[in-house]
Predict the 3D structure of the following.
Amino acid sequence: MDNLELIKSLSQPTSTKIILLVLDGLGGLPDPGTGKTELETARTPNLDGLARGGTTGLIDIVGPGITPGSSAGHLSLFGYDPLRYNIGRGALEAVGIDFDLEPGDIAARGNFCSADSDGLITDRRAGRIDTGECRRLCGLLDGMTINNTVLFVRPVREHRFILVMRGEGLKPDIGDSDPQREGVPPREVNAIEPEAEFTAETVRGFIGRAKESLAGNHPANMLLLRGFSTRPDFPAMTDVYRLRPAAIATYPMYRGLARLVGMEILETGSGIEDEFETLRKNYSGYDFFFIHIKGTDSAGEDGDFERKVRVIEDLDRIMPELMHNRPDVLVVTGDHSTPAVLKGHSWHPVPVLLCSKWCRPDGAIEFGETACSSGGLGRFHATSIMSLAMAHSQKLNKFGA
Amino acid sequence: MDNLELIKSLSQPTSTKIILLVLDGLGGLPDPGTGKTELETARTPNLDGLARGGTTGLIDIVGPGITPGSSAGHLSLFGYDPLRYNIGRGALEAVGIDFDLEPGDIAARGNFCSADSDGLITDRRAGRIDTGECRRLCGLLDGMTINNTVLFVRPVREHRFILVMRGEGLKPDIGDSDPQREGVPPREVNAIEPEAEFTAETVRGFIGRAKESLAGNHPANMLLLRGFSTRPDFPAMTDVYRLRPAAIATYPMYRGLARLVGMEILETGSGIEDEFETLRKNYSGYDFFFIHIKGTDSAGEDGDFERKVRVIEDLDRIMPELMHNRPDVLVVTGDHSTPAVLKGHSWHPVPVLLCSKWCRPDGAIEFGETACSSGGLGRFHATSIMSLAMAHSQKLNKFGA
């Protein structure tokens, strides 16, 4: 039995509340000078106090040695094994700009590109036009109807955009138009499976009309499409966990992922304070909150150890506001490690802190990688985070008689 | 997805180098007098220094409570789940004498035995003839061609030998001739599956001719065969990990296992110094080295606590020669425990030490079972050793977007 099926068979709605606070890329590596990681360097009296009263551990997001991408990291925290629950590239790009994909929609990643008078691709990225120009060009193409199918064209960044098709009978089994190299024409879009012929024809119709609309817009006088895929059909958290789940995230990608697992998305501002204020205002309406904090990962990716430390300290300073809501369970963790010394995601296990009045306490007196490595939760797979949160909020029935 | 498939989808060749140093049967149990294991008793300043700079843990080779054989132990360390990747008994015996099995070959274990004038077996082991006599008898039988099939007969030890058949259309699905008891004649070798009839007929032909050759050689005047099996078709490490892997081992069994997973076998001498010298000479030609040290296991099997301690100390003394190569990742571990007090393999988890500049350090200040049990790698399955080594040498791409 899949873990989600097990949990679904045991979960029951209660009045208790869970907060899952995700500090993106939280895990780190030591500064060579001090021997302490970002989290261990940060002055975090509030998190340390929670560690003293709670229990800690280390989680593997995918498995030992495997560095997770952001979508894999979050799916794992939400209890969805990322080796089993996949998102197609087009759908992920749509999710990444918070586009509300519906079941049956087909999404593709798009590039504006440059073509010469013979139709050969001269620049796959159209000279990396700026995002404003991308937005203008998407406006020219957005909203067509072809074969009773509505086509949405929305900007991502620079030369990148998404195409989403909505209508009856669409199938994702069609080939890319993007040949992934220059000096050749785009590929004709063909069905890989016979039942996708209608979809391929619709895409060909779109490409034909887009060519006409873009004709005078060199360097962006053509487009390329790849990664056709559907909205993944994941079990909803409302159904698996019987929760009323809400997401608070400043970045569109994380709102998009939360939407895919059935969370409601709460409007918020751009800072941690805004997110905590959104939590306070909406606290009575839901029993599960996913709060996403991006700054830790961005600082790690930039190799800025000090800034990552500061983001953690800023968060720590306002933790009392969050705790003021008196959640029955609070989990503080990350979706992967992003050590500043590596300037990128890494495979190192991620510290986790769980607070609840039903915790079995461990000896941890602070929240940090070293303390967590001997914490009472031990080292475990991230897909068990939700099971533990549900258990500690007494939302899971006994298994077996 | 199988772990090997996952790793294969993520691995990339780089210039970094990994050394996997296996001390056979490394794990131990305490001497009742001192409360310290063999590894904890040994004076190991170099390994302790590596533990201080690196990270440690404990590995389960098959699973908690399961005592592994040597082949299961090594396959697990190489990343091949021993519950899934099997080696037939005949193939294992061939591997054990370093016989270079080719795909399609069929191998069997053989015994020289004694038979009376009625053809009834009077001694299944032919009075345990010595290995020299075994070699002479194998020489009488080696190299026949029957049904266009070449038959190799090679000595193992005492009355034991291997038969390997090489030709077209051979199948391993044939029954044993060995009845596993005395006072009865050997069984006729029959096909278990119809397509193995040709193979069975070839074996019957061999047995007929062998009987004639052995007729005057009492007590070894007959032979018994069992465990017909093919060379296992394991994914190659070159393909899964995209490594150029080399093996340095003084015992044929470990060279044979390394060959089965696609390692190149380097000629070496009989001592640890010889093995380290082989490493030094070949260091530029490969990016993965498996070095096998047998003495720890042999001493444990003999119940010789002190000798096992000495082998570990001898190894420790020359560790600087190995570290002089400056590997990007060094893993020191064992393929199972062989506690001297048990005089045999055991199920106890095995200490592991991983050194790399990308380690997250733990508090370990020495390399020993107790220190490892609170090490930063935690307790994990041996099949993750290679994933961790690959990650720490930055040979694995990110999983998912």
Remarks:
- Chain A touches chain B at residues 29-30, 35, 37, 58, 62-72, 82-83, 87, 89, 92, 342, 345-349, 369-370, 373-374, 378-379 (CB under 8 Å).
- Chain A has a mean pLDDT of 96.
